[in-house]
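User: Hello! My lab partner asked me to get a predicted holo structure for this protein. The small molecule is pyridoxal-5'-phosphate, SMILES included with the sequence. Please write out the structure tokens.
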Amino acid sequence: MTKRVDFTTVGVAQETIDDVVEVLDSGRFVKGPVGERFEDKFAEKTGVEHAVCVSSGTAALLLALRGAGIGPGDQVLVPGHSFFATVSPVLTLGADPVFVDIDPETYTMDPTDLAEKAADAANPEAVIPVHIYGLMADMAAIEAVAEEHDLFVLEDACQAHFAERNGVTAGDAGDAGAFSFYPSKNMTVAGDGGMVTTDDSDLARRMRQLRNHGRDDDGVHRALGLNYRLDETNAAVGVAQLGRVERWNRNRQTAAERYTDALANVSEVTTPTEPADASHVYHLYVIQSPDRDALRDHLESNGIDTGLHYGTALHEHPAVTDQIPSVTLPETEALVDRILSLPMYPEIPEGDVEYVTNTIREFYR
Ligand SMILES: Cc1ncc(COP(=O)(O)O)c(C=O)c1O
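Assistant: Hello! Below are the structure tokens for the protein in complex with pyridoxal-5'-phosphate.
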């Protein structure tokens, strides 16, 4: 029988289930104290004043942009390489994405290209650096450009819970940070969920209003909001996961180190770059190979699941090209044909990492 190595989610332990049962017994399923506790703990760990829990990472991005007043006619700078939800809220709000190329070493937004695109843009209002795969973008350089052009900086930290760079935690570098708790993320709520972090009290208030039908505490709807709330049962899981996420991140880092060491002598394979000032939390471990598709088939035939994150650049999805004139981003476009995500989760056995790397070595022998 072939060995199977696949992607798995993080575990939800028995004591977490007890916390969920407590919520169920309380009968308070939304807008309750557990969500507030989750927000307080998340804010404290991130080092920000406010955390606002919401129904998904996509909702987190959407509400942060709406809270910042982004709307029709505004331009929002986004990297070409990310999950679709980095750009879909921009388009949903009627704003125009301006695509920025990536740095070929880190795969995060290239600050030099950002500076050029921001200078050329007619009405740039915001920028969304993405901490792709768990590595924070070069926020110091991005902040400098943002300051020059007075841009609202929204970190897409959906893949980077408690990553750090230059001594700053993801979600504490920009004006706001958006997190996802989708089950495969570094921490989850055992379902969909999200969080926005910010030091701006006014922005936090607007996002709380918008996530709850635009309703203020006096029951009057002064904004047009929808329902983006997080359930109390999910928040209970989130609180418990906060106590584990750092250990899981360390486990991911150990697995990444094993992959990188074992692949060091395979000249055809490029392993992830970890800048000296960064703590990469390896939501994904992504290699580059010029023979990506054949290598993927070889791994698959040896029982190893791999992923493509992401096989199409953001600016090339039909839902985007239908609305935005086509652009060229050379580094992004070169990358998407070469990337391959290897199995990565906190409890991945050392033997599985060895099996995957041996199978890659065998392919190139
Ligand atoms: C970079 C990035 N942005 C946004 C999202 C959207 O998060 P969600 O799936 O929780 O809506 C995700 C995760 O799926 C993501 O990886």
